């Protein structure tokens, strides 16, 4: 088990190094930082001084080593658009995106597993068939269309929920959260439903398929022959043995909630990292774009490591490997 974890850590470091080099190439070779930071009216001497200060007059390996050292110290450059440190700009937006993604992930995971188990156990009931039919909508419709439809129904026609913004926030330490205010929760409903619906239906259909396969296995038939309670068979035997493929897909899908929250944040004007990324692309704010790329890479690597650890908990055979 220890060898497996060490190997996975080594692979993760190699992936992060590769992504950091790509981010360095984006940071170094797209756009002209002297124009973005000094303006077009700056003199040649001022431009040369800035190039020397940024280290762009040095060999590429030296530049990459310097860039990597700055990243490890949390120095991600200066935003061309707002003329502030990139790390500070991103950290201001992270709470909004994390709250949106975590609530959507909780909804997708809890709802997807519960509905998947129900539709597998009661596969011939009318409720199960209705849920499977409705899940086709969540899988088929694009995220932006779901958001627009929800805005039209609940914000425009019924006027029950706000159509944009994050609502009121309160400071808890250095964290600005909307989870402690009523307007924060009401503003969260539509974006969470939009972001989490596709993941919920995907996890539900995956759990149902794996549960049906598990319920046909010999060990489940033997458990029934022994007279074990149905709840123990369904949850202690069948569901537990579906966790490996479910963890694989769910881990990647839940990680993408942050990476691909861009569409949802744009539709609802949610002040998160995704909306910042869109604004940075429009303004060719290269340091923010490169930092976003690094952040998403670190996120996926961390999620994969967590999924590997969950494998060991779900399947005891892997601990002896």
Please explain how this structure is put together.
The chain is mostly helical. The chain folds into two domains: 2-72, no CATH class; 86-320, Orthogonal Bundle (MetI-like fold). The chain contains 14 helices and two strands. The protein has helices spanning 2-29, 33-38, 44-54, 60-72, 86-121, 126-140, 143-157, 182-215, 218-225, 230-238, 243-259, 262-267, 273-282, 286-314, and strands at residues 170-172, 175-177. It is globular and about 85 Å long.
Enumerate the spans where pLDDT stays under 50 for 5 or more consecutive residues.
none
CATH architecture of the largest domain: Orthogonal Bundle
Q: Give the amount of beta strand, in percent.
A: under 5%
Q: Please indicate the count of domains.
A: 2
CATH class of the largest domain: Mainly Alpha
Radius of gyration of CA atoms, rounded to a whole number? 24 Å
- Classification by helices and strands: mainly alpha
| H and E string | HHHHHHHEEHHHHHHH
Task: State the helicity in percent bands.
Answer: over 70%
Shape: globular
Mean pLDDT metric: 82
- Number of distinct helices: 14
CATH topology (fold) name of the largest domain: MetI-like fold
Q: Strand count, sense and closure of the main sheet?
A: 2 strands, antiparallel
List the helices and strands and how they pair.
Elements: H1 2-29, H2 33-38, H3 44-54, H4 60-72, H5 86-121, H6 126-140, H7 143-157, E1 170-172, E2 175-177, H8 182-215, H9 218-225, H10 230-238, H11 243-259, H12 262-267, H13 273-282, H14 286-314
Antiparallel strand pairs: 1-2
Helix pairs in contact: 1-14, 5-6, 5-8, 5-11, 5-14, 6-8, 7-8, 8-11, 9-10, 11-14, 13-14
């Amino acid at each position: 088990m220890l060898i497996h974890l060490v190997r996975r850590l080594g692979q993760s470091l190699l992936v992060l190094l590769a992504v950091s080099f790509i981010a360095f190439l984006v940071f170094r070779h797209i756009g002209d930082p002297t124009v973005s930071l000094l303006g077009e009216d700056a003199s040649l001497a001022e431009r040369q001084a800035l190039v020397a200060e940024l280290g762009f007059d040095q060999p590429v390996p030296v530049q990459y080593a310097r860039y990597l050292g700055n990243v490890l110290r949390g120095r991600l450059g200066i935003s061309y658009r707002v003329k502030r440190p990139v790390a500070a700009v991103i950290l201001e937006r992270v709470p909004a995106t994390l709250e949106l993604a975590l609530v959507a992930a909780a909804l997708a995971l809890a709802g997807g597993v519960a509905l998947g188990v129900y539709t597998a156990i009661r596969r011939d009931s009318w409720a199960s068939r209705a849920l499977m039919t409705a899940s086709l909508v969540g899988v088929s419709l694009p995220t932006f269309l779901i958001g627009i439809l929800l805005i039209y129904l609940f914000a425009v026609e019924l006027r029950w929920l706000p159509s944009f913004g994050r609502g009121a926030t309160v400071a808890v330490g250095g964290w600005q959260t909307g989870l402690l205010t009523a307007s924060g929760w009401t503003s969260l409903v539509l974006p969470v439903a939009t972001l989490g619906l596709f993941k919920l239906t995907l996890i539900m259909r995956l759990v149902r398929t794996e549960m049906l396969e598990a319920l046909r296995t010999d060990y489940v038939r033997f458990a029934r022959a022994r007279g074990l309670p149905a709840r123990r068979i369904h949850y202690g035997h069948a569901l537990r043995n579906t966790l490996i493929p479910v963890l694989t897909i769910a881990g990647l899908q839940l990680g993408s909630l942050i990476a691909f929250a861009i569409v949802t944040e744009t539709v609802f004007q949610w002040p998160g990292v995704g909306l910042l990324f869109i604004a940075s692309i429009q303004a060719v704010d290269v340091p923010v774009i490169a930092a976003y790329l690094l952040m998403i890479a670190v996120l996926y690597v961390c999620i994969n490591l967590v999924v590997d650890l969950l494998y060991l908990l779900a399947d005891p055979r892997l601990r002896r490997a």
